[in-house]
Amino acid sequence: MKIKIYSMSNCLKCQQLKEFLKEENIQFEDINISDNERAKKEMIYKSKQNSAPVIEIRKSHSIGILVGFDKEILKQTLNIK
């Protein structure tokens, strides 16, 4: 499984998401879109959303996109007890 997070520097939900993943020892790639227009366009294309955080989860041959930070949904998606 590979997790990519599109985040912004001053985003509280982005910080909470990253802290949660770190606490659960889940590795992720963090892409800060604050000053990266290309990454922001990529995030919008993938999620159809203009706000962060956006989480891309790759499992085998499937890709899932979650928008925002909802701890319970993320736990279910990642099989965290």
Describe the structure.
Strand 1 (2-7), helix 1 and strand 2 form a beta-alpha-beta unit. The model has no long low-confidence stretch (mean pLDDT 95). The chain contains 3 helices and 4 strands; from the N terminus they run E-H-E-H-E-E-H. The radius of gyration is 12 Å and the shape is globular. By secondary structure, it is an alpha+beta fold. It starts with a strand and ends with a helix. It has a 4-stranded mixed β-sheet with strand order 2-1-3-4, sandwiched between helices. The chain has helices at residues 12-23, 37-47, 71-78, and strands at 2-7, 29-32, 54-59, 62-67. The longest helix has 12 residues, at 12-23. It has one domain (2-78): Glutaredoxin.
Q: Which helices and strands, and how do they pair?
A:
Layout: E1 2-7, H1 12-23, E2 29-32, H2 37-47, E3 54-59, E4 62-67, H3 71-78
Parallel strand pairs: 1-2
Antiparallel strand pairs: 1-3, 3-4
Structural class: alpha+beta
Helical coverage, percent range: 25-40%
Domains counted in the coordinates: how many? 1
Broad shape = globular
Arithmetic mean pLDDT: 95
- Any guess at the CATH architecture? 3-Layer(aba) Sandwich
* Quaternary form: single chain
The residue ranges in which pLDDT falls below 50 over 5 or more consecutive positions are none
Number of helices: 3
CATH superfamily: Glutaredoxin
Largest sheet: 4 strands, mixed
The radius of gyration computed from the alpha-carbon positions, rounded to a whole number of angstroms, is 12 Å
- Rounded to the nearest angstrom, the distance between the terminal CA atoms is 17 Å
